[in-house]
Amino acid sequence: MASGGSDMSADKPGPDAALRMLKDGNRRFHTGKALRPNAGSSRLELAAAADQGDHAFATILACSDSRVPVEIIFDAGIMDLFVARVAGNICGRNEIGTIEYGLVSVRTPLVVILGHTGCGAITAAARAYQGRGRPEECNIGAIVDVAEPACRMAAEGHPEACDEGLIPYAIEENIWQGIRGLFMESPICRDYVRRGRARVVAAVYEMDSGKVRWLPEQRVMDILGAVEKSPDI
């Protein structure tokens, strides 16, 4: 993952422009007008010699689900996105370290925590939380354990939701819990966001339409504010 320096390249987009690029790319994708940029032989040749930090404009934590191909849904190419994928897009220590690498070494001005509809890992966690069975495999169960607090928060916030109806709320709450964990464990991320050097945004990919739904950014800042007041940091 070679990258150098800690100063953002002058010709890279800032946080606002990077977010617009993702939104524009997703719009092209879900309307059938994808350009499939930066995917040819010239880009391959450049990638073999270039520093990704001079090109990648967003760090994205997404689910491993094969139905959510990150570069494709944002109509991006080689060296455009620095992507971490894990089942349930859970934000544990390794994922937070990867995001920090994206911010500091790859110099991306934008971090996206991306969930998706129909997430199998969050579905399993929501069912386990409701006492409807747990995965027998211990390591899959560990993923469920990380996601279950989000299911609890979703249930407390939406007491009317039961059975499968809890899952969409749990998917969103899992994203917010991931952002909280990121801010709790990453002083550099807090600093970059506070100083406007980077933005952290939350989003849900809707598999039936191909659209990315962007969640309220004010809640990101509310979470940051609450974390900064926490005695645990």
Summarize the entry for a quick read.
The chain contains nine helices and five strands; from the N terminus they run H-H-E-H-E-H-E-H-H-H-H-E-E-H. With 233 residues, it is an alpha/beta fold. The protein has a single domain, classed as Beta-carbonic Anhydrase, Chain A (3-Layer(aba) Sandwich), CATH 3.40.1050.
Strand content: 5-15%
**What shape does the CA trace take?**
globular
- Give the N-to-C terminal Cα separation: 29 Å
CATH fold-type name: Beta-carbonic Anhydrase, Chain A
Q: What proportion of the residues is helical, as a percent range?
A: 40-55%
CATH superfamily: Carbonic anhydrase
State the secondary-structure class: alpha/beta
Question: Which blocks of ≥5 consecutive residues have pLDDT under 50?
Answer: 4-10
Number of domains: 1
**Number of E-state strands:** 5
Q: Which H/E pattern describes the elements?
A: HHEHEHEHHHHEEH
CATH top level assignment: Alpha Beta
CATH architecture: 3-Layer(aba) Sandwich
- Please work out how many helical segments DSSP would assign: 9
The strand line-up of the biggest sheet is 2-1-3-4-5
Structure description:
The chain is of the alpha/beta class and 233 residues long. It has a single domain, classed as Beta-carbonic Anhydrase, Chain A (3-Layer(aba) Sandwich). It is built from nine helices and five strands. The chain has helices at 15-30, 41-49, 70-73, 93-104, 120-129, 138-157, 167-185, 187-194, 217-228; strands spanning 58-62, 81-85, 110-116, 199-206, 211-214. Strands 2-1-3-4-5 form a five-stranded mixed β-sheet, sandwiched between helices. Strand 4 and strand 5 form a beta hairpin. Helix 6 (138-157) crosses helix 7 (167-185) and helix 7 (167-185) crosses helix 9 (217-228). The longest helix is centred in the middle third of the chain and has 20 residues, at 138-157. The radius of gyration is 18 Å and the shape is globular. The two termini are 29 Å apart. Residues 4-10 have low confidence and may be disordered.
